[in-house]
Amino acid sequence: MNKTRLWILLETLKTADWRQKIAAADEIVRLHTNEKSDGTKTIVEELVKLLKAAMGDVRNAAALALMEIGDDSAALPLLQAIEDEENFSDRSTLIYALTHFDCSKYFSRVFALALTNRTDVQSSAQNILFEQKFNLVKRERDEALEMLEGVKEAIPEQDYGRLRQYLNSIS
User: Fold this and answer.
1) In this predicted model, what pLDDT tens digit does every residue of 138-152 receive, in sequence order?
2) Are 106 and 73 in contact (CB under 8 A)?
3) How many CA atoms lie within 13 A of 24 on its CB side?
4) pLDDT digit string, tens, across residues 104-135
5) For residue 165, what pLDDT is reported?
6) Which of 39, 118, 150, 159 has the fewest Cβ atoms within 10 Å of its own Cβ atom?
């Protein structure tokens, strides 16, 4: 892998306009390798660092590249970026990218996102819940039911009903 080219592409993600960021992300995906060579960080690790960038479009481009690479080690950092208060108004692309990862270890966190007051975040989180397999223990299900009851009046009735039915189906 050409490390100089990778460095240039990562810098492009940080500084260019959106179209150039997406082109750079696409090229990073093509360069991807999970193998470390002579102590350098993997592409995935470098993209994960960009999930903490101050600019939303940098985070979004990194999230889309991670989504295309598909390395499940990026699921937790994506989830952390989504939950970060500083990203509250700019997390649609982050959660869209998360839908492409195995979230089976993060049921409670994904369920909490399904209860947020942002329709785009709710919708993607619900897609994760309904499309992925979660092995819950009774305590997790009971906590989710309690969370759902706590926001019953704050979420659309249809969402409440679907989530309640979902939780009852996994008992």
Assistant:
1) 999 999 999 999 999
2) no
3) 25
4) 999 999 999 999 988 889 999 999 999 999 98
5) 95
6) 39
Q: Are 90 and 126 in contact (CB under 8 A)?
A: no
Assigned token pair, 29: 């995906």
Sign of CA dihedral 149, 130, 77, 26: negative
Distance of CA 138 to the CA centre of its chain: 26
Q: Which amino acid, one-letter code, is at 43? A: I
> Would you state the torsion angle of the CA atoms of residues 149, 153, 154, 159, taken in this order, to the nearest 10 degrees?
70
Of 171, 83, 84, 99, which is closest to residue 135 (Cα–Cα)?
171
Q: What are phi and psi of 53, to 5 degrees?
A: -65, 150
Burial class (CB in 10 A: 0-12, 13-18, 19+), 51: buried
Which among 30, 26, 31 has a CA at the least distance from the CA of 12? 26
**Nearest-angstrom CA–CA distance, 11 and 46:** 11
What per-residue confidence (pLDDT) applies to 32?
72
> What 8-state DSSP symbol labels residue 40?
P
Asked if residue 115 lies in contact with residue 122, where contact means CB atoms within 8 angstroms, the answer is yes
What's the rounded Cα separation, in Å, for the pair 14 and 101? 24
pLDDT tens-digit map of 65-82: 999 999 999 999 999 999
